[in-house]
Predict the 3D structure of the following.
Amino acid sequence: MNMCKPIPGLQLDDDSLQSLKRIQKKITSGKFLATAVSVGVFSNIFTKNNLPIASYNVTQTDWVLYAQSMKAVPVIIKAAVRQEIEQMVINYQLNYNHKHLLFWKGMYDGCQQN
Amino acid sequence: MVANRIKLKFIFIYVFFIFAFSVSAESKVSDNDIFNFLHKNIAKSTAELGKVIESCEKKRLNSVAVLLNVDSLKKLKAKNSDVILALTYINFNNSFKCEKSARIKLAYDLGLLTSVKRQHQSNIKNINEIEDNLIYPSVKQIRLSIKYLKLPAKLKEYIRVTAGDKPFDLLKILRINHLLDI
C-alpha cells in the first residue's frame, strides 16, 4: 500500500464533509444489516425457554447460511463505499479541484501513515 | 407371542407419530416465528448479494481498459466533461445490471420485514437505513442518470459500444484516456 502523501492547505468543503458522513452512515448501516442477519439465528437459541427445544434449535440452525451472510456484509459495505468515493473523484475532476481530487483519489487507493 | 409384542410396539409408535404430527400441524405460528422466517430470508439474500458483488468485482478488476478513439471523439465534438459523464454513467449502469437481481431480492426481503414491522408498530428506522445507504442507488447516481440522458445520442452510442456492457474499472479507463488529472 502507498504511503499517505500530505496535501498542504487542504480544507474539506461541504461536499466532501457530506460524503464522509454518507460513508460513515454506510458503515453503520452495515452493522444494522449484520444485526438483521443475526436476529433469526440467535432468537432461535435464546427465545425458547425449554432447554431440550433450545438445544434442538441450536443444532437445526443453519450456521453455514449465518457464516455466509456475515461474510457478505463487509463486501456490501465496501462496494457502497467504493461507489461513493468514485463519485467524489469524478465530481472534483469535473470541477477542477486538484487538492480535493488528490484527497479522494487517496481515499480510493488507500494509503498508510508513515 | 413375540410377534404380537412387536406388532403392538409398531402400533404405539405409529399412533405417537400421528399424534405428534397432528399437534405440530395445528400449532399456531407465533409472531416470533414470522420474524425469524423473515430474518432468515434476509440472511439468504444478503449472502447471495455478497457472492454476486464479489463476482462482479472480479469482472471489474479483470476488465481491459479501452482506449477511446480521439478522431471519433473529435468528429462527435465531444467535450471531455461529457465523455467523463458518459463513462461514469455506463460504469454505474453496468455494475448495477450485474448485481440487479440480487439487490432487488434483498430490497424485497427488507421491504417485507419493514411492512410486517410497521403492522406491529415496531421501529423500522434501522431497516430503512440499510435500504437507503447500502441497497438503492444514491441521489447522486439518479442525478447522473438524468444528466446522461441529456447527452447527444451519438456520443452516448459511441461510449456505450466502446465501453461494453460488463463492469469496468472507471478510474483506470479515465486515466488511460488522459481524462483524469492525477
